[in-house]
Amino acid sequence: MGVDVVVAVPAFLDITFVGLEGLPALGEERFAGDLVRTPGGGAITAIGAARLGLATALVAPLGQDEAGDLIGPMIEREGVQLAGPRCPRTPVTAVMPIGNERAMVTYDPGVRARAADVAELSPRAVIVGLSQLDVVPAGAHAYVSVGDDDARAFAGRLPGAAGRVRGLFIEQREALVLTGAGSPEEAAAMIGARVPLVVVSLGADGAVASVDGRIVSVDGFDVGHSIDTTGAGDLFVAAWAWGDATGMGVEDTLRWAALYAALSTRVPTGAGGATKLADFVDEGTRRGLPAPPTRSAAR
């Protein structure tokens, strides 16, 4: 029996500087209140999906180094299956969150998931980057998470395989870079000409989506003071995969996913912000969201 979702987006060691008052200018030194090391990148999505009750595998090569040895057990303790070979070095990101924004510096050796390793897990859905569509096996739902690197690499064009994509998720700044559009709504419509579901995140203001060519606005949620927005988009995708797996309607899934992303910003790191299913459902119900279907009913 296959897994619910495979995450093939590269996983990183995130080194997060917590409590910065501002970014240093050249020649300056700033101090953080804390320093934490957690799984990042695709590992955030995988942890979120697992905490929401999905059978989840991460097929993103971790390095045979101290960084890989550190985050590998962290990921497995969340119930996420690690699959595929390891590589020489683990991608690493230094994360500097400040209010509703963050700056990042990344080292990425560029090793990616292999199609055979993904197919071996017989996934219902696969979450990939825009340059990884070739690893999605036939019959699996393809969800694409577009980061800064892919937005710049594919600016002005989408790969030919984009027609296979079931849903594409991108933040506002990257959407404007990818499409050259003048607004998030225009960007969603442009990508939506090729992809049935497109979600452009607006941060605390929610999201705008193109659903089969129709523009839909998704309100944001007031969850209090934002500590770290890192990984909010990754967790939106995780919650979307959860809602889709339960058979929830598109617009309800968008609202639940927007809440999941918002809740993650209350604590440092994306992995730390992934809310567990029972707490998430309680929070959504309290805010008037419709009760999600049970997995048995969806099947």
UniProtKB/TrEMBL annotation:
SUPFAM superfamilies on file: Ribokinase-like
Q: Tell me which UniProt keywords the record has, alphabetically.
A: Kinase, Transferase
Listed transmembrane segments? none
Pfam families, per database record: PfkB
The answer to keyword Transferase applying to this record is: yes
Q: Record's InterPro entries?
A: PfkB_dom (IPR011611), Ribokinase-like (IPR029056)
**Carbohydrate kinase PfkB domain residues:** 33-267
> Which GO molecular function annotations are given, in alphabetical order?
kinase activity
Q: Does the keyword Kinase apply?
A: yes
This protein's GO cellular component annotations are: cytosol
Task: Tell me the protein's name.
Answer: Ribokinase
> Which species is this record about?
Solirubrobacter pauli
